[in-house]
């Protein structure tokens, strides 16, 4: 027998008689086979059951048909399911209803046991009373939770015409009720279509016709609860560039401004295949006091629809006058740089230019009012370093991780000693696409002749958009700290077994094919095909998964780790304005002193050889000390591997190289006898620019006693600082080439001056060397 169930005290549409009065099944215990007309009816029934039992209900996952995209099943869970909040205990109680071909919904899975005490939790979440038939009132009214402020919904006949210019948003009003507890059938369909005109609190599964409608709903909810809303991140499809999801956050989210305190409250919506939008993630908890009824008018932001129901993040526009039909709209951008910083920095830049003719700085101006925005600067040493080591850069915005007083960002490269070198500094006014676009274009203008092949930067959409526009073709790799932060946030509710297999899949797979295969098996094993976060990070795998990063050159930046801040503890969140310049210069000089020490050691110290291979002596002569030690380690390790030829056709051969005593550690090496080209499945050369132990083993087997020149990158050699001028394949213009030569000679001359003035004897030696060199250049005093 299949029973029809309705929640306790829910009204039927046809007769307005309560289920209790009919003696129906409203009070029955849930069981497999229980039938409902709609999924909402099942949710209402489970809420009623929860009231009697003593727990709260949340809307859980939904599943869609692969054929037509319609919802095929839904889960309703205990509010203590999961571990995302301290109040949750990982309770597994739930019901699942599935849609049948008849259109009915049948309860097909159930778990009644809770892992926490029941009782005392009779408040119903996300339950909307069923309407009875009644004449349509002038104004709409809904019954809301008695423990929360009532919400009044007004239609277009309301006396207060406060609407957003871009949509039909009806504002919630605090206080007053409505027309009792019922809604007329004439307006019932409208209310289902537009959640912006209901008194429902946000919950996972709430649907909207457009992203703008979702934004308006959340702003109205925020006004009633007592907080303000900011527009957060959006994500775009890599297929067609359309917006796929959007976040709306509490205005106190983050720490970029003194008024912000890292509030974690937010609502995220996801675009559905049908074109609608659904709330898929939600956090209602704030870490600050709320002010119910607080108006959002003064700080209200409007967002424009992009034509696909998504939200355009390029500009936020502020509404100056809500009561005027001809609203004046102007572009506004936040500036997190204190006004007192500009005169300090500009005075410093001007003084530096008197000492360093190659010193470069630029200030972004707000064209609307002429005020200063972002700032960029680089001295001649940083500009010269970019010509040498600008192939891989890190855009370090670690100030975003904490409550820093000033948004100080750096552009970092890695030199021939694998040390970080400064390529530029910036104060970032805000985190808009415009700010980052200006910053990257300015940096590129200051650093002629070199475009990065790979960039490590945060994954926020404004940064992604700016990078794609300024550096097309560069491989953008996400910052490791941000990847780990999002993993910690989203993996928390998963079992430890899944986390272990997840880590193994990410960090132990060697090829993209292997990763895709292991990932698919992992997702299928745990039934996570519909998990939105896992689906998103898989779509972005080229930007963070090691197997996809190995094919691009990253100058040895560890895949699994992060890079330390260039200025370390010298500049932190508490650095006062009056000490910024002195600490900046002191830390910069310390870094450059470390680089000079490594230069000296590489030219004057010789490491011991550990083999009798000619390639070891060749590389000791060419590489810097740090790089040679890495190569030497790979050469020594190659003796622990066995090499077996598995294929040969013409000049092409393939070898299987595996470690002795470890059958699982093996790699494939392809070798061409015609040009000595080699490649290995580990891709160490592609990623770090140094040959791996596997190729070195094959070279040893084939008696190749000296490395081909193509496998010794000039950037890793002792004279990397001066060899770039010989590289005419970079395609630099004659003007840029002359600038590079000027910087190179100036850097060399500065070293003569530095060492030549340390004593009278060294001065005489330096002067004699320069005089003899001048004769060869036909330059006479």
UniProtKB/TrEMBL annotation:
Positions with biased composition (Basic and acidic residues): 152-162
Pfam families given in the database record: FAR1, MULE, SWIM
Region feature Disordered, mapped onto this chain: 114-189
Intracellular or extracellular location(s): Nucleus
Location, primary (coarse class): nucleus
Comp. bias (Gly residues): 165-181
Domain SWIM-type residue range list: 667-703
Low complexity bias locations: 129-138
Keywords tagged on the record: Metal-binding, Nucleus, Zinc, Zinc-finger
Function summary: Putative transcription activator involved in regulating light control of development.
Family as reported in the entry's similarity comment: Belongs to the FHY3/FAR1 family.
Name of the molecule in the record: Protein FAR1-RELATED SEQUENCE
């Amino acid at each position: 027998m299949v029973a029809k169930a309705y929640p306790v005290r829910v009204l039927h549409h046809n007769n307005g008689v309560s289920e209790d009065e009919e003696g129906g099944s409203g009070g029955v215990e849930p069981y497999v086979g229980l039938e409902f007309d709609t999924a909402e009816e099942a949710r209402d029934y489970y809420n009623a059951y929860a009231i009697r039992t003593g727990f709260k209900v949340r809307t859980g996952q939904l599943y869609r048909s692969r054929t037509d995209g319609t919802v095929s099943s839904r889960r309703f869970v205990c509010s203590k399911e999961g571990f995302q909040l301290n109040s949750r205990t990982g309770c597994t109680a739930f019901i699942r209803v599935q849609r049948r071909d008849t259109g009915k919904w049948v309860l097909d899975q159930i778990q009644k046991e809770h892992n926490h005490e029941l009782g005392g939790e009779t408040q119903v979440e996300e339950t909307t009373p069923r309407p009875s038939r009644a004449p349509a009132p002038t104004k709409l009214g809904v019954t809301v939770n008695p423990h929360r402020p009532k919400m009044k919904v007004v239609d277009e006949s309301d006396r207060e015409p406060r609407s957003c210019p871009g949509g039909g948003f009806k504002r919630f009003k605090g206080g007053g009720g409505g027309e009792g507890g019922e809604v007329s059938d004439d307006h019932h369909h409208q209310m289902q279509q537009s959640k912006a005109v209901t008194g429902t609190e946000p919950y996972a599964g709430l649907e909207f016709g457009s992203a703008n409608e979702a934004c308006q709903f959340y702003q109205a909810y925020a006004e009633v609860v007592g907080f303000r809303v900011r527009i957060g991140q959006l994500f775009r499809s890599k297929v067609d560039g359309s917006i796929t999801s959007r976040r709306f956050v509490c205005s106190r989210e983050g720490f970029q401004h003194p008024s912000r305190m890292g509030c974690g409250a937010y609502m995220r919506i996801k675009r559905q295949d049908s074109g609608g939008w659904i709330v898929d993630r939600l956090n209602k908890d704030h870490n600050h006091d709320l002010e119910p009824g607080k108006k959002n008018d003064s700080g209200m932001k409007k967002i424009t629809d992009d034509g696909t129901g998504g939200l355009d993040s390029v500009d936020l526009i502020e509404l100056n006058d809500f009561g005027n039909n001809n609203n004046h709209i102007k572009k506004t951008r936040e500036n997190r740089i204190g006004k007192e910083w500009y005169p300090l920095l500009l005075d410093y830049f001007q003084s530096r230019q008197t000492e360093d003719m190659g010193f470069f700085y630029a200030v972004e101006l707000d064209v609307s009012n002429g005020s200063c925005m972002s700032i960029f600067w680089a001295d001649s040493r940083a500009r010269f370093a970019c010509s040498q080591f600008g192939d891989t850069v890190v855009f370090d915005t670690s100030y975003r991780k904490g409550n820093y007083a000033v948004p100080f960002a750096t552009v970092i490269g890695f030199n021939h000693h694998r040390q970080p070198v400064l390529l530029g500094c910036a104060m970032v006014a805000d985190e808009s696409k415009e700010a980052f676009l200006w910053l990257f274009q300015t940096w590129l203008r200051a650093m002629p002749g070199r475009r990065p092949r790979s960039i490590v930067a945060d994954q926020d959409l404004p940064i992604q958009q700016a990078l794609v526009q300024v550096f097309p073709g560069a491989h953008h790799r996400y910052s490791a700290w941000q990847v780990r932060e999002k993993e910690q946030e989203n993996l928390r509710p998963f079992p430890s077994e899944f986390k272990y297999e997840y880590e193994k899949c990410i960090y132990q797979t060697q090829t993209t094919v292997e990763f895709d295969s292991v990932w698919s098996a992992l997702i299928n094993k745990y039934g996570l095909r519909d998990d939105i976060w896992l689906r998103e990070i898989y779509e972005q795998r080229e930007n963070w998964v090691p197997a996809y990063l190995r094919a691009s050159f990253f100058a040895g930046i560890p895949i699994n780790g992060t890079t330390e801040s260039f200025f370390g503890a010298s500049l932190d969140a508490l650095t006062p304005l009056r000490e910024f310049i002195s600490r900046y210069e002191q830390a910069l000089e310390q870094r450059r002193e470390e680089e000079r020490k490594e230069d000296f050691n590489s030219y004057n110290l010789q490491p011991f050889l550990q083999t009798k291979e000619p390639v070891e002596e060749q590389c000791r002569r060419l590489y810097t000390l740090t790089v040679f030690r890495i190569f030497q380690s790979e050469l020594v390790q190659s003796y622990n591997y066995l090499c077996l030829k598995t294929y040969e056709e013409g000049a092409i051969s393939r070898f299987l190289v595996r470690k002795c005593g470890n059958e699982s550690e093996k790699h494939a090496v392809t070798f061409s006898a015609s040009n000595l080209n080699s490649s290995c499945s580990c891709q160490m050369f592609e990623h770090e620019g140094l040959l791996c132990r596997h190729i070195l083993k094959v070279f040893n087997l084939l008696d190749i006693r000296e490395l081909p020149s193509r496998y010794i990158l000039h950037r890793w050699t002792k004279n990397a600082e001066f060899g770039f001028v010989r590289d005419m394949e970079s395609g630099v213009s004659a003007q840029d080439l002359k600038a590079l030569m000027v910087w190179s000679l100036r850097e060399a001359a500065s070293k003569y001056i530095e060492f030549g003035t340390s004593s009278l004897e060294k001065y005489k030696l330096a002067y004699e060397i320069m005089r003899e060199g001048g004769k060869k250049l036909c330059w006479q005093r």
